[in-house]
Amino acid sequence: MARMTDAPERWTQATVYPDMWTDPDDDPRNSEGVSPDGELPTLQDFLTNYRMTLRMKCEGLDAEQLARRSVPPSTMSLLGLVRHLAEVERDWRNWLHDGERLPKLYGRRDADFEDAVADQAVVDAAYADLEREQAATDAALAAFADLGERVGKDGIAIRELLVHRVEEYARHCGHADLLRECIDGRVGQ
């Protein structure tokens, strides 16, 4: 089993820009067209691209590689990030109302990272959880036409919640860049 301290050689499939992991023409996130019109479509476009980036960072890895931890004492792994983002998608729905909170997806605090183990069933469940929770949060937020509407006990604006989602994915995609490079040398983009 490789350790994170075993530095892999950097690798890329790019031929045009060897400091990237794929050429721009092969990047499914690359939209050479006009950017979306309006605030909500722009936020949704960024969120979609970051979600795709996380998936791309995990592509081609087995359960052991996905569950591989960064450096002690951190419990961070790519699989942990997938589970964490499923957990926070669920939690964001709690911000929309004053009622009873949805239970934590993985039970106790930090179980999203701590229980991210090298088991294909755990990997498959994590991806299913993420897709389900993303769809549920997307649907819940679609009910609000006014991005300035304030909701929940904290009176958070829908706009702020949307921006926070983009920020959460962006931050964790940065972590995923480093984790992936430590696993097999694949460089970030």
TrEMBL record:
Signal peptide positions on this chain: none
InterPro entries listed in its UniProt record: DinB/YfiT-like, MST-like
Region spans: Disordered: 1-42
Superkingdom field: Bacteria
Protein name: DUF664 domain-containing protein
